[in-house]
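Researcher: Next entry in the queue.
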Amino acid sequence: MIFVMFAMMFQSWLFVVVSFHYMLMFVFVYYQMRYSAEPLTSKHVYNFVTPFVYIFDFCLNWLHGPTSYWYLTCYVPMYIENVLMSGLVLWNASTTPNPAWYMVPGCVCVIVMFPLGVLAQLAYYLYWHPKLPLLPLPRRTFGDFLAKIEKEEEAVKMENNNRIFLATSSLSSSSHLDDLSR
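Model: Structure for this entry, 182 residues:
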């Protein structure tokens, strides 16, 4: 909302603000991707595309990791941007002879609602978000992987041997019955 009001007042400066916002979000995403085990090409695509999404959308944590830390590092600079743009819009509205009626309420709404939204998000994560115990992931080596494959192969061989044994034993028992009937 503040981007729209800022664009209405400072048309030529909007691209400067959007570029600054993109670069800020790029730094945060690049910092976050350092801890990811994604392939290199996926990292580059993610690093360049995700900040564009963050221009128009709130910060989403698309990767595994500490979400509360990510939200803190993302929302604080975003709120500072919103307050600075609101201040510029309010200053311009106060110096303009007939500003639009919605400029002051819109800026107040941006300044007040952003922290209320963050507080609602905090309340959700503190009280209503499901808390599951974190289970440690088993660490497997390549040797463990090969041992598992060998066990599966042994099981398949044993099953095949059992089938062969049952088939031959049924054949021999049927021929034994034929001998008895003669």
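Model: The helical segments are 2-9, 14-33, 40-56, 67-95, 103-128, 142-181.
Researcher: Noted, moving on.
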